[in-house]
Amino acid sequence: MQRPNPVTPRLVVAFFAAAALGAVLPHLVSDFTAYQFTLAMIYGIALLGLNILTGYNGQFSIGHSAFYAVGAYTAAILMFHFEWNHYATLPVAALAAFIAGFLFGLPALRLEGLYLALATFALAVATPQLLKFDAFEHWTGGVQGLFVLKPDPLAAGLSQDQSLYYVTFGIMLFLMVVAWALLHSRSGRAIMAIRDNPIAASTMGINTALYKTTTFGVSAMFTGVAGALSVFATEFVSPDAFNFFLAVNLLIGSVVGGIVSIPGVVFGGLFLVFVPNWAQDISRAYPSVPPPWAIFGVFLILVIYFAPYGAWGGVERAVAWTRRRLKG
Amino acid sequence: MRFRTLLAATAATLLAGAAQADSTGITDTSIKIGNTSPYSGPASSYGVIGKTAVAYFNMVNRQGGIKGRQVELISYDDGYSPPRTVEQVRKLVEQDQVAFTFLTLGTPPNSAIHRYMNAKKVPQLFVATGASKWGHPDDFPWTMGFQPPYNIEGEIYAKYALDNVENPKIAILFQNDDYGKDYRDGFLKGLGDKKDLVVSMLPYEVTDPTVDAQVVAMKDSGANVFFNVTIPKFAAQAIRKACEIGWKPLHLLNNVSSSVGSTLKPAGLECSKDLITAQWQKDPTDPQWHETAGYKEWAAFMDSEIPDGDRGDVNYAFGHSASKLLHHVLENCDDWTRKGIMGCAANVKDLQLPMVLPGIVVNTSPTDFYPIQAEQLSKFDGEKWVLFGDVIDASK
């Protein structure tokens, strides 16, 4: 549970099977549903960043909405003020979020556990107000936000929604492989050693300060890419989109998917997009049941209760159980 | 062969769909309408507006609907988050297939769907926001506002101050967001080339505990006009603080906080004397309206549909007025298609709504997409607001 899966033939097959399913999906559903899956994958990419930081490196963050906003605004400003191509903004958004994360990681070095959680919480609370700040208003559009357009379809015959789905899907798969490679490298072992026993890790010669700040930066970078993609999908940024609620949602998605997992982020993203909608539909269909957020809470408690290691932990346990049964 | 038949059938269905797309969501017995409101999140106090609209059309349905059609108003929670508004509105338009949206709430949420609705040619009717950008039929022929824009109200105050105060020195306290800045900018526009009369302009954040410090600083600036752009909690604080420190400027209070029940009583009625505001709705806590037919109609609606609703909350009246306007538009519309309904919405003449001040009427035309544009100044006499002067129509 605590380590990323090693490369086994089975994992490779599962990866390609999932990729194939993802590739045909937008042709089986409506544009709107494809759009919802795109949103889920965007959340998934953001969760990937949070999982690297919190799940693998042991640093808590309730403030990842801030890095999501950095990515989103970087992309939006480049497109709106400088008329950049959509995709060209992605590396810059990633870099901006990396720098923001790295810099925030420096003071965070002195904070552990709950104290770090509180510091990142402050970051989440401050983000919408910073974005409204008069001095930046010329660039951020202040409370009115900035408008951009969806990218044109990549190929003829694809709708804008399908095209954006494929772009997001490709980026998500790429970043999952990157995250997996990172965590399997020497650096990845150092990242996890710091989580498991920081004193032992530094005794072994690991530069904990450097690793922790860099991990913060890398984590923010993933989340920043997600933020930039969210601008393509929504075609609009404004401070109200990056409130504290987004930060909490990211944490929920991370825990639901499995905070120490890479594939789990897909489940986390799907949960964040579809469960509130289901809760709302249930609430509408049966007016006597409690309001949607109470139903959402019930779903959340059920997941935590039945899959304490998140959805991916549940999948792994189910696979292990089936295998034992087949052998037994 | 079979595949080709299927393909042909699909194409035929799509074509037929395209031809009829204009009356999506409308049948001979029903009409589907969409709405998003913040039922959760930081702006959830505005959720009662959407709730009131749903209750209103439930009542209409029980009474037989509109022209024999039952109204299905689907209202989703967007938590005041623009990306979520986009998702929910796409769900309404593409999945639920609503005919149009009605009374979607908030400036940022409506901004996020503005272009989408116009690209899809789906009416975005009577948006619940005071921003000024909803009445531009040339660029956005499918979007229409409802209430008087905040900036127009700001202009009215500026003109009043210039005309009635000798040697004015102006202090402005405003909430640091879209609502506060709209008022501020409208006021500054109303001052024209006399902007240097503003001696103090201080913002506050909605998360601040008090605005006492700002009020003290404004008194020290020597201002004799105080333009107070705050929501009820802070308005009450500012009125009380000014009273305590003996500062008696011409106090212009924005309409957002003009409720007797939620602002002036907490501030102290004695301290609230001589406040000036511009109004367009009847304040439900103001006893002078309680005997009017409009108030009685609203009160009866509240009794039967929302018995547990707070009668002091003007948002219930707001939701009722907007629903009443939509009811009127649909009832007097012969062409029940998206285009037809948009046309009917742009053809309302001198409609008096029950909870809107007497003399302030709804007027729209193909070139006027601001349904309510008039307001009237009133002064607080220590007990109730007393209207004075003429109805000021910004469109004239």
**Number of H/I helices of chain B:** 12
User: What structural class is derived from the secondary structure elements of chain B?
Assistant: alpha/beta
CATH superfamily of the largest domain in chain B: Response regulator
Principal-axis shape of chain B = globular
Number of domains of chain B: 2
Average pLDDT of chain A, rounded to a whole number, is 91
Please tally the β strands of chain B and state the result: 12
Helix-residue proportion of chain B? 40-55%
Instruction: Indicate the percent of residues in helices of chain A.
Output: over 70%
| CATH fold assignment of the largest domain in chain B | Rossmann fold
Low-confidence stretches of chain A: none
Order of helices and strands of chain B: HEHEHEHEHEHEHEHEHEHHHEEE
Q: What's the overall geometry of chain A? A: globular
Beta percentage of chain B is 5-15%
Characterise the protein shown here.
With 328 residues, chain A is mainly α. Chain A has one domain. Chain A is 76% helix and 1% strand. Chain A has 14 helices and 2 strands. In chain A, strands 1-2 form a two-stranded antiparallel ribbon. In chain A, helix 1 runs antiparallel to helix 7. The two termini of chain A are 23 Å apart. The relative contact order of chain A is 0.17. The model of chain A has no long low-confidence stretch (mean pLDDT 91). Chain B is of the alpha/beta class. Chain B has 2 domains: 224 residues, Rossmann fold (3-Layer(aba) Sandwich), CATH 3.40.50.2300; 130 residues, Response regulator (Rossmann fold). Chain B contains 12 helices and 12 strands. Chain B has a 4-stranded parallel beta sheet with strand order 2-1-3-4, sandwiched between helices. In chain B, strands 6-5-7-8 form a 4-stranded parallel beta sheet, sandwiched between helices. In chain B, helix 3 packs parallel to helix 4. Chain B is globular, with a radius of gyration of 23 Å. At the A-B interface, helix 2, helix 10 and helix 12 of A face strand 2, helix 3 and helix 4 of B.
